[in-house]
Write a structure and sequence with these properties.
Number of strands: 0
Protein name: 13272_t:CDS:1
Number of domains: 1
Radius of gyration: 12 Å
Distance between the termini: 28 Å
Largest sheet: none
């Protein structure tokens, strides 16, 4: 139970960080992620 909880938090924070960086660039960019789960959360 705890492992799943921390995994969900980590996944959300990575996706959030990537989306903030992408928004700050304000230009076309390619987003790469080491963990495939983070990629699926990015819109």
């Amino acid at each position: 139970i705890f492992a799943n909880y921390y995994y969900d938090i980590a996944r959300t924070k990575k996706s959030y960080l990537i989306s903030i960086i992408r928004d700050r660039l304000q230009e076309n960019s390619i987003v790469l992620a080491l963990i495939g789960v983070a990629v699926f959360n990015i819109q």
